[in-house]
Amino acid sequence: MDSTTSRKLVRRRSDRLYTKYRSEVLFASCSGPMGVFSLLPRELHHAIMEYLGYPDLAKLSGASHYFAWLTREYLVSCRHLESLLFPSVRDLLHRSCPGFSLREQFLGLGNLLRSISSLMPTKEKFRLLTSVLTKLQSVHSVILSQSGSTAAYSCFGALLRQLVTGWTFADKHTVFQMIWQEACLESRCQQIFASCAGSLPHHEVDIRLLIRNVFLDNDGVGPAHGSSKHGSPPSLDFLCWLSLLLKSWPLVHQARLLVTLFGPLHPTTGTVDWQKLCTTLHGGSCVKQDLAELAYVISSLYGSQQHTSNSNGHSGISKHLCWIPDHVVSIVDEATALPQGWSLDNMGLLLQLLCRPLTVNLLQCYAANGRLSELAHLVLHMAIVCADDDGSGHYHSREPKPKFKTELAYFVDVLREVLSVFSLQVRKHFIHQFFSAWQEHIMDTFHASGDPVQINAALQRMTKICEVMSEYIFT
Hints:
Layout (H helix, E strand, L loop, with lengths): L2 H28 L11 H8 L4 H8 L3 H12 L1 H17 L7 H16 L4 H14 L1 H11 L1 H15 L5 H14 L2 H9 L7 H16 L19 H11 L4 H12 L11 H5 L9 H15 L1 H6 L8 H4 L3 H11 L8 H10 L2 H13 L3 H21 L14 H13 L4 H26 L2 H21 L3
Helix pairs in contact: 3-4, 3-6, 5-8, 6-9, 8-9, 9-12, 14-16, 14-19, 20-22, 21-23, 22-23, 22-24, 22-25, 23-25, 24-25
């Protein structure tokens, strides 16, 4: 065999060995957790993932443990996390969007992080959350400078609430403490509590925006869990964050914080309008929209025990979310004493907006403490508010199928339940106090306005109240 033939045989043998080796390597690569992607360097993996959106990344992370790890590694990288959000941030801010379209981007990131961390241990979850929030500080600063604090807090809150959905109460408590300390909320709240109501208006608004947009509001425009009194229960997440927020403070601070978060805002300055709570009807008192959110939140606390007991699968956190009814009644007493005591018009409006069991409990507490004169004035102004609603044609039923055709019928039914716990002697004394308050109100109306039209309207309103009360109670 000459040398040329020998070289050809060696070449063919080496080609067969190389082909065999390449087939073995390719088979081993395809059968591994990464498949053919194991042949690529990690930098190319990240470069490919830059073309994927949040839903695609979520599906990719569910393919295998390795892809879940690779997606986590990709997200916690500062450059790659900013590459996901910054184009959307710049584009939406350039179009002068109000911030809530941008919120969808953070909701998508929250969904992605939740799918990635669903099978992770608790410590790994917190490590991932801390890392992501640290990397997002630059994005948060851009939104804060361009669109304001409302949009920035709303985006951050959307991501946070989406991420922790389904977490245990203990894990949510840890997250709450983390953000509470990071934002220095305790010292900022103490600064407000140490001052008079309304003396630090800008601090109060900043606390209101931060807490509501980050923890409580789903849409950035108030409690998105139902209307203030129409029977829609709050979500367990809402009760969880609200309980974590309030239960760390004494009762008087709980009442102050509730009014700061959900009280009426001044239409011009945008600050909490404490003076409006103390103003009489002729000086521009509150309307339903001003107190609807506050009444909803207080009613949610009062009904938290029933709501958590009816929720399946959440019995382990019920004890943390339940509020004692008497404690909620005390919160209402403290809240209505701020800053110098609410006007009777606003008190009557609040009683009408609160859930029925709480309204009855409040009025019965006045009677049990011998405050029949105050009770008579409160009942009178609640009746006036209900009569005004009936006159406007806007009825606010408290049942899916209206049980009461008018607000006055609802008022009389509440009053009947309150009177049922009185003795006959106390009941007679209360009726005497009620008509004395009625006479006093007519005289005040006469001296305040002197307008025959207003006086005639007040007399007609009182006649309507008397007719309905006589029909439902005295017959």
